[in-house]
Amino acid sequence: MSFKGRQQQAQAIWEQFTQPGRLRVLIGSATCGRAAGALEVKQAFHEALAEANLTETTDVVEVGCLGMCFAEVLVELRGSDGTRVLYQGVEPRHVKDLVQAQLINDEVYAPLALAMMGESGTEIPAFDKLAMIAPQVRVVLRNCGIIDPTDIDHYLARGGYSGMARAFELGPDQVIEEMKGSGLRGRGGAGFPTGVKWGFARSSVADQKYVICNADEGDPGAFMDRSVLEGDPHAVLEGLLIAGYAIGATIGYVYCRAEYPLAIERLQGAIEQMHQEGFLGSNILGSGFDFEIKIKKGAGAFVCGEETSLMQSIEGKRGMPLSKPPFPAVSGLFGKPTNINNVETLAAVSAILEKGADWYSGYGTEKSRGTKTFALAGKITRTGLIEVPMGIALSTIIDDIGGGVLDGKPFKAVQTGGPSGGCIPAQFFDLPVDYEHLAEVGSIMGSGGMIVIDQESCMVDMARYFLTFTENESCGKCVPCRMGTQHLLRILTAITQGKGTIDQIETLRKIGDTMKKASLCGLGQTAANPVLTTLRYFEDEYRAHIEENRCPAGACRALITFSIDAATCTGCGACKRACPVDAISGEKKQPHSIDESLCIQCGSCRQVCKFDSVHVQ
Amino acid sequence: MPSEQHSLEAILSQYAQNRDSLIPLLQDIQEQFQYLAPEAIAAVAAHLNLSENDVYGVATFYAQFRFVPPGLHHIRVCEGTACHVRGSDRILESISRSTGIAPGQTSEDGKFSLERVACFGSCALAPVVVVDDKVYGRMTAPKTQKLIEEKK
Ligand SMILES: Cc1cc2nc3c(=O)[nH]c(=O)nc-3n(C[C@H](O)[C@H](O)[C@H](O)COP(=O)(O)O)c2cc1C
Ligand code: FES
């Protein structure tokens, strides 16, 4: 069958799936959905449908992540009249009522309804108009939560693999021109123009070349790549194939972190389907291009996200970085020319080849084209995965999309770029989010982790936290990184314990500066960023710890004491039960009190108190 | 144990005798046997024509590999940024208290082992704890205690 014919066949299948007629249950079952209980909900649907004699007439499908992780478990139901409603916070105990209302009576089950998919004639908002969704532009996430990620027909029907077909028509050089024209920059952190990088690898002459998809996603607090791999694996694999075609590689690797078992499962399934379709193997679609894809599982080392370390790891060695040059485009995996791209970059590649460079570069700003995904987490109301045009204001992301800081508390800072990034304080709340502006304020785009921090987080402790991470993950090969992270961590720990001295502030800056200049790889070159940016914007917090033995955020345990306000304490006993060391005493309905000599400052009492009666000093 | 010997050999035989088989091979063995025993390391070294020293060098570099058997219930606590901001240190502490073990240890009765992990990618549900490959999101100290009691 021709590719066109195959597409039409897939479209017919998709039409059946999307047209009213059959009843349909879509359950968001990516890792985050599963953690919230998606599989239990699915089981409950199977049981409820069997009981209502609807098993035969209903499709129950696991889909990827729509990005509204805060509202998990998400279920979209389509009744017999074709109405599609998205429900949030679904638990097995709700399922019977949902089936009765939406699938049998064709009525919306109001208590859990979040949005109407498509037009909304009711007071329940349309999905596209939701505050979280309206500002978003979904390119990389185009299929996530919409298609069945295990069904290649769904991907094909929505334009999948047309990018590949078009690439074969254009030829490698034109494909590279197209990538240059799109303005796409690498989404793995450094933001290097993708088309230019491909050009380097194409011009290297060798008997064997490789392409690699970097799915190591090491930033602790980011999950964009995982969601794409789980929700739309073909989008990434198609991008990898196009990259291979453009540079002349016949073997592609996906290096995926082992902590993502579902993503690996989805990738394996997708690769098998590509084989069945003839999208892998020799002479793909008659183009003369041969290509195979292999999966390599990471083994838990952050530094292996760095490209040269990653290649060492694929070769079966300790994942330590090499000095560059030679760059991978000249001598990479097994000493052969290699091109490496991030998951999100590759998912954008397949869309760009399908829809054209001009379409993509129409989004974003002059130097930062297109869209970027972010993982919104931390102290934010609507946690989740989002995709926005570059240049969007930070405030739009946090207030409109994210619904503001959790519990309406004041915004303090947002951390971007993970352990290599920095904290952006409230004064830059309106900053346009693109490569240039983030760099200007001392942070980086990074891979797209965005952790919102409120007044309860101490910035010195945040810096200490990141250094604990990088000190642990430093591979030890170069001295500036190995010793630098150790020193920084030692000083930061002392400060958070009230044992710091004022001259250490300067020492932190000096060490950080040296690491930036002298480290071998990106890990060491950027490891001091969390310290340097918090020093830049929150030096007063450092000083409060050192000079006044005080943690203004009330987070550093060595410097705080807990007490119960007798005026507001109702004597409910919640804190007494929560205290792990029995430091709280008090009669029922009488104000309780904390024995400071027993208290370990764990804060459990404060967490459970409904009356805000536990104070920190 | 002859059956174990047999399946160790069965695993080895699936891998080409190239250096780039090393990490997948170790991963496969750990998945099967829960940890890397000295005999397993020796067998891998022999199969790939590497020194044991070399194999240990690689295995110890990566956080994934264990050299002692884990407990019956393996508890992993996320220490990623999102989880940290939402109080993962308290969760870890509470688990340590109810199991009596520190991260990296296995309890004396062999019931529990505890590990810190950088991020599960379920950050939106922070703080996250994974027990025997099941992910538990939005944990609190009391919830973790209850979970441990159930498994005891
Ligand atoms: C310490 C360190 C960790 C990194 N981790 C990742 C990662 O997890 N995922 C990723 O795609 N790139 C990571 N990178 C960047 C890669 O080295 C490389 O630049 C990237 O994969 C290139 O792809 P891109 O051009 O599509 O961004 C890391 C870099 C460093 C220095
Ligand atoms: S930070 Fe805990 S799951 Fe990502």
Structure in words:
The complex is a heterodimer of chains A (617) and B (152). Chain A is an alpha/beta fold and 617 residues long. Chain A is built from 23 helices and 18 strands. Chain A folds into five domains: 18-128, Glutaredoxin, CATH 3.40.30; 161-361, Rossmann fold, CATH 3.40.50; 371-454, Roll (Ubiquitin-like (UB roll)), CATH 3.10.20.600; 459-547, de novo design (two linked rop proteins); 561-616, Alpha-Beta Plaits. In chain A, a hairpin with a 7-residue loop joins strand 16 (584-585) and strand 17. In chain A, helix 19 runs antiparallel to helix 21. Chain A starts with a helix and ends with a strand. The model of chain A has no long low-confidence stretch (mean pLDDT 95). Chain B folds into two domains: 2-61, Arc Repressor Mutant, subunit A, CATH 1.10.10; 73-151, Glutaredoxin (3-Layer(aba) Sandwich). Chain B has helices at residues 2-13, 22-33, 38-48, 52-61, 81-85, 88-99, 141-151, and strands spanning 73-78, 112-117, 129-131, 134-136. Chain B has a four-stranded mixed β-sheet, with helices on one face. The longest helix of chain B has 12 residues, at 2-13. At the A-B interface, helix 2, strand 10, strand 14, helix 17 and helix 23 of A face helix 2, helix 4, helix 5 and helix 6 of B.
Notable characteristics:
heterodimer, A: 617 residues, alpha/beta, Glutaredoxin, Rossmann fold, Ubiquitin-like (UB roll), 5 domains, five-stranded mixed β-sheet, 23 helices, 18 strands, 40% helix, 14% strand, globular, B: 152 residues, alpha+beta, Arc Repressor Mutant, subunit A, 2 domains, four-stranded mixed β-sheet, 7 helices, 4 strands, 48% helix, binds flavin mononucleotide, binds FE2/S2 (inorganic) cluster
Q: How far apart, in Å, are the first and last alpha carbons of chain B?
A: 29 Å
Oligomer classification: heterodimer
How confident overall, as mean pLDDT of chain B? 91
- What percentage of amino acids of chain A are in beta strands? 5-15%
Computed structural class of chain A? alpha/beta
Q: Write the element-wise H/E pattern of chain B from the N-terminal end onward.
A: HHHHEHHEEEH
Going across the biggest sheet of chain B, name each strand in turn: 2-1-3-4
Number of strands of chain A: 18
Number of domains of chain A: 5
The CATH homologous superfamily of the largest domain in chain B is named Glutaredoxin
How is the main sheet of chain A built? 5 strands, mixed
Q: CATH topology of the largest domain in chain B, what is it called?
A: Glutaredoxin
Helix-strand category of chain B: alpha+beta
Helix content of chain A: 25-40%
Radius of gyration of chain A, in Å, reads 26 Å
Radius of gyration of chain B: 18 Å
What is the annotated CATH architecture of the largest domain in chain B? 3-Layer(aba) Sandwich
The percentage helix of chain B is 40-55%
CA-based shape of chain B: elongated
**Please, what is the CATH homologous superfamily of the largest domain in chain A?**
NADH-ubiquinone oxidoreductase 51kDa subunit
